[in-house]
Design brief:
Pfam families: DUF559. This protein has 287 residues and is α+β, with helices and mostly antiparallel strands. The protein is 40% helix and 17% strand. It has 2 domains: 91 residues, no CATH class; 118 residues, Endonuclease, Chain A, CATH 3.40.960. The protein has a 4-stranded mixed beta sheet with strand order 8-9-10-11, sandwiched between helices. A 3-stranded mixed beta sheet has the order 3-4-5.
Amino acid sequence: MESLVVSGLSQHQLRRRVAKGEIFKIARGLYVRRKPEPIEVAQLLHQRWPKVMIAGKSAVEIYSRSAMTPPLEVAYNNRLSSSEWFKAQRTRQRTFYEFKGIPVQNPILAALEVDEKRAITMLEFHYRSVRGKAALERDLSSISRVPAGTKEMLRKVVHGSDSEAERLVVRALRRRGMKVETNHQIGPYFWDIVVGKIAVEIDGYDFHKAEDLATFIKDRWKANDATLRGYTVLRYSGSCVKRHLREVVQQIVGARQRNPDFSSYAHQSVWDWHSLLVGEPYEPIRG
């Protein structure tokens, strides 16, 4: 970064060259030889003010693993004047995340700086692993003052799931008033979705197409184990969720309430109604 920074010029020379577009002013006393990328702005600010952290929209882009877009957004514990290259806010919060050696704002606080849809998408991606729930709770506990509305937004986040099909089912079940656990452990095994004593697994066709013998055996013993522990086991493919979300949810709710509707067509021969099997185009996801 040193080769990018302009040094050795007087204030008059700096102003004149900025006016000519030969160099660019990033912040007070910080000039560069060419237009910098957002990550370069972050690196320059971090070199000058080590406690500066990437924040807001820029942090959301990092957690979403998408390209950073200008202007960079940062947070600092003292006043820092913004420029056309970055927007600064004050913060007293600390962080333990880093990106290329630069501190990055707590993902929950960063999420509050963008629209809710984008925030939830980022948080679901960031907390998608089996340890997602624990990570979310850790990040929430590290915030000294939780902003109003944060918990309401977090209730909409489906954590612990790396499958969009799983998230669709969870959201639909929550709209029905169901309490849903994701990546929930029963015995020695983890299940995609658990609602009361209903254990649900959602698998894509590509997963099973590549399934080896060890996985095939594990899945049988996993289902047997949950059944013997008193759980009702329900399994669906990703295509079932995409094409027949309403029927999937109805079965899970019926099992949870112990009153499945056996008169519905979802309990007729599947080859007579499943759109994939009868070769019909499917409607947009419902539920």
